[in-house]
Design brief:
The chain is an alpha+beta fold and about 500 residues long. The chain has helices spanning about 10-20, 25-30, 30-45, 55-60, 75-90, 140-165, 300-305, 455-460, and strands at about 5, 100-105, 110-115, 130, 135-140, 195, 205, 210, 215-225, 240-250, 260-265, 285-290, 290-295, 310-315, 325-330, 340, 340-345, 355-360, 365, 370, 380, 380-385, 400-405, 405-410, 420-425, 440-445, 450-455, 465-475, 480-490, 490-495, 495-500. It is globular.
């Protein structure tokens, strides 16, 4: 990764670089991102960087109205994340030879212009990088000769290391600590349906996904809730309305295999809620096309508390012969049946979709073209960002964020065996570490230790990714992989979590 230093550069150079980026192939095919980048840079050029706020960007770039609510519409955060990724792709390809680079720091919207370390400082002659045109570069013969020499040296070194390793004794480790190869394809592609039960307005969540108002229902009553905070979600709006009573949803679907995800939150019963009481106050039964999915289901008991997002996952759901998915919700022994939201996603035969969660408030596309959802299913801890680049990885941006503290993730799955991959990094200047203090922590899955006394600094050192993969994990009785990150010294941390069915 080239070294980029933030320095004061000429206004003309900054504008020239902006024009080169906007005229590139990557940005020419993305007018929305081009418009956003142009707006942010022009504001900075005009000395109005202090006016670059999420609200103003929403109105002036994305044509939102003055009633724009950033809590219910994440369009700016989502598009800014896409812009960061697109800039990274540009400077890894068309703009690789540019001495000046534009970046949008994570958590901010004000662009920065940084100088790349000169070719001479890298041991290359000035002619090694030759600019041609407005936004492309062509390697010189000297650079080609240097690169060929480097490749030959690396190949010889690799052969030598392989021979040395073959002579060394093999030690068994329960968990791997190196970069893991991708073992699963990306998410299935197809029609996606999201319905907010009891809601009259649409909603765009932190992942940029659109949730429609309540539809396809019959019976029941729309019930709003004044509850503000909902545990285990960044999108409490999804859980602030519900449909309650005895009701059905008849949802038209194309033929195929789907994954059904039902969302609940008990906002009425509970020790701190208006209904008082607790477990046992509301039981319900759910069926899909006549087949029982949940019987005597208690949301509060399943989620482990009131005002807590609870998701139940059902793979291999298909419409009936008439193209309808009929979901029936009926009250059981006590209380009134309820539902917060419905998701119907393209499914994988016999298994749930891969789950990939990054500890950040917006989604992320990794360099291997995998989509990671923004932080979800968590309770406790805090999010933070580091500007210290990760070393030893081709995707350093992936490791810029973390959740730290004493926290847990309750990841909903179906009955099966799963492989969980945990991504960590220890930034030398992390705000969640005291100077000189070694961070040590444990990770438990459903009460069983899967990572013990982890000290990232001892394992790989500062600013280097550490990956741990654990196989053969089964969900608990509530259909969750409950991952608990428990500090021993300092705070626990995690950058991303991947869950794949085996």
């Amino acid at each position: 990764m080239p070294s980029i230093t933030e320095q004061a550069v000429g206004w003309d150079a900054e504008r020239t670089e902006l024009h080169a980026v906007l005229e590139s192939h990557l940005f020419a095919r993305s007018p929305a991102l081009s418009h956003l980048l142009s707006y942010l840079c022009e504001k900075k050029f005009a000395g109005e960087a202090d006016q670059i706020k999420e609200y103003s960007v929403a109105l002036e770039v994305f044509d939102r109205r003055e009633t724009f609510d950033q809590d219910s519409d994440s369009i700016v955060r989502v598009q800014a994340n896409r812009l960061r990724k697109r800039l990274s792709e540009y400077y890894a390809s068309e703009g690789a030879g540019h001495p000046l680079r534009i970046t949008i720091p994570v958590g901010q919207y004000i662009p920065t212009f940084g100088k790349v370390e000169a070719p001479e400082a890298l041991g290359l002659p000035p002619s090694a990088l030759r600019m041609t045109g407005k936004s492309s570069w062509r390697p010189s013969a000297t650079l080609i000769w240097i690169l060929a020499s480097v490749i030959v040296i690396l190949m010889v070194g690799a052969v030598f290391l392989a021979r040395q390793r073959s002579r060394a004794p093999v030690q068994s480790r329960p968990l791997e600590t190196a970069q893991m190869p991708e073992t699963s394809v990306g998410l299935p592609v197809g029609e996606e349906i999201r319905i907010l039960a009891g809601a009259s307005r649409k909603y765009v969540d932190h992942a940029g996904k659109m949730w429609s108002p309540d539809s396809y229902y019959s019976g029941g009553t729309a019930v709003p809730s004044a509850t503000q905070h909902i545990w285990r979600t960044q999108d409490p709006i999804i859980y602030r309305t519900s449909r309650q009573g005895d009701f059905t949803y008849n949802i038209p679907l194309k033929r195929g295999t789907y994954e059904l995800r039902l969302h609940f939150s008990e906002n009425f019963y509970g020790p701190e809620n208006s209904g008082g009481g607790g477990e046992g106050n509301r039981l319900l039964t759910v069926a899909a096309n006549g087949q029982t999915l949940l019987r005597d289901f208690d949301v509060l008991a399943d989620s482990g508390g009131d005002r807590t997002a609870d998701v139940k996952v059902f793979p291999e759901i298909s419409p009936a012969a008439d193209g309808q998915l009929r979901l029936a919700f009926s009250s059981a022994k006590s209380g009134s049946a309820m539902l917060s939201a419905i998701e119907i996603l393209p499914g994988v035969k016999g298994k749930i979709r891969p789950v990939r969660v990054a500890a950040r408030d917006v989604p992320y596309y990794s360099n291997d073209s995998l989509w990671w959802s923004p932080d979800a299913y968590f309770k406790g801890g805090q999010l933070s960002t580091s500007q210290e680049p990760a070393q030893g990885t081709d995707d350093p941006e992936f490791y810029e964020t973390e959740r730290w503290g004493h926290f847990s993730y309750a990841i909903p799955v179906s009955p099966d065996r799963y492989t969980v991959t945990l991504h960590f990094i220890e930034h030398a200047g992390s705000q969640d570490r005291n100077a000189g203090e070694q961070r040590v922590f444990n990770v438990f899955c459903n009460g069983k230790a899967i990572v013990a006394n982890l000290n990232i600094m001892d394992e790989v050192g500062a600013n280097r990714p550490l990956v741990r993969r654990v196989k053969g994990l089964a969900p608990n009785a509530q259909g969750k992989l409950l991952l608990e990150f428990v500090p021993v010294t300092g705070y626990a941390t995690v950058t991303a979590i991947e869950v794949l069915p085996e």
